[in-house]
Write a structure and sequence with these properties.
Oligomer: single chain
Shape: elongated
Number of strands: 0
Largest sheet: none
Structural class: mainly alpha
């Protein structure tokens, strides 16, 4: 299989920190907007406010929150990857912990809450990275043997 052409399929090594931070922030705003819209659809109406105002307020709140969290994660991941010179399991762990700590510190007054958020973001980021690449933690290219077939899929 030929290597990917960076013009058409950019990856973490060819993208700049600003690009990764911005694209992660935009993705976060979109995810937060959808989350806010869905949350508003199921929320109870508050007397004295229009449903449109409540929906817009909820949408903006979550879009900003998710956008900030995703941007912090994307920027930290790009910075860590650039500083270390490689993208491995530690990059999303460090970036997730950093973004979780910032989000936890801004949303709670307890240091324990910030630590819990940092841990939760680190675990979530690592699981998301693992799900996107089956060879993420282990490089199987060093082994010459073929993958083990399951008993039910054995060809006779």
């Amino acid at each position: 299989m030929a290597p990917r052409d960076p013009k058409f399929a950019p990856d973490a090594e060819t993208q700049g920190t600003l690009y990764q931070t911005t694209s992660a922030g935009v993705l976060g705003v979109l995810v937060g907007g959808v989350y806010g819209a869905v949350g508003s659809a199921f929320a109870k109406e508050i007397p004295g406010t229009s449903s449109m105002t409540a929906t817009a307020s909820n949408l903006m709140k979550y879009a900003g929150l998710f956008g900030l969290g995703f941007a912090i994660y994307g920027g930290t991941r790009a910075t860590v990857t650039g500083a270390r010179g490689k993208l491995d399991a530690w990059s999303p762990i460090i970036a997730g912990a950093a973004s979780g700590a910032v989000m936890g510190a801004s949303s709670t007054k307890s240091p324990l809450g910030a630590a819990v958020m940092a841990g939760a973001f680190a675990v979530t980021a690592t699981l998301a990275e693992m799900g996107s690449d089956p060879h993420y933690l282990f490089d199987f290219s060093q082994y010459d043997n073929k993958p083990i077939m399951l008993a039910s899929s054995k060809q006779e």
